[in-house]
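Long-time lurker. I teach an intro course on protein structure, and each term I like to show students one example going from raw sequence to a predicted 3D structure in token notation. This year I'd like something fresh instead of my usual example. Would anyone be willing to generate the tokens for the chain below so I can use it in lecture? Attribution to the forum is fine with me.
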Amino acid sequence: MTERICVGAIAGAFGVHGEVRVKSFCAQPEALAAYGPLWTEDGTRSFTITLNGAISKGFAARLAGVDTKEQGDALRGVTLWADRAAMPDLPDDEYYYADLVGLTVHDTGGAKLGEVKAVMNHGAADLLEIRVPGASQTVLLPFTRTAVPTVDLAAGRIVADPPDGLFD
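-- Reply from a regular --
Happy to contribute to a lecture. Here you go:
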């Protein structure tokens, strides 16, 4: 398990007085500010964040130490990470994306299909990007109860029942 969880990203400056536009990756988007301080991915900087209101595709926010438009624009694309200890415990059937990356994926017969490279959500549903041994391209597996009946974090494995032809 990772020490930090990615909870958002900075999309650049919002206005001219140091506010930034942030996108929340939290189930409750406004909870982003409750997990602070938030860190950069490399852990070299931390920010106390104050949400100032909802805007299109995110929030206008104030980050401690960011006082100008130029400083806000320089942070465009920076992901924001919260300490795992600040994050709420999840029910048994919910997972942090970070905990799924790296798990091995086996079919219902026990054969290894690959390893989770990433978890994505483009609006409709979560997808597991599976790195398949010996293949140059990855496979996108729907992260549904039907296609993924078992996730065993303790054992570091996922049991999948993929749609026919997905791994052929």
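Some talking points for your students: The helical segments are 69-74, 97-100. The chain has two helices and 13 strands.
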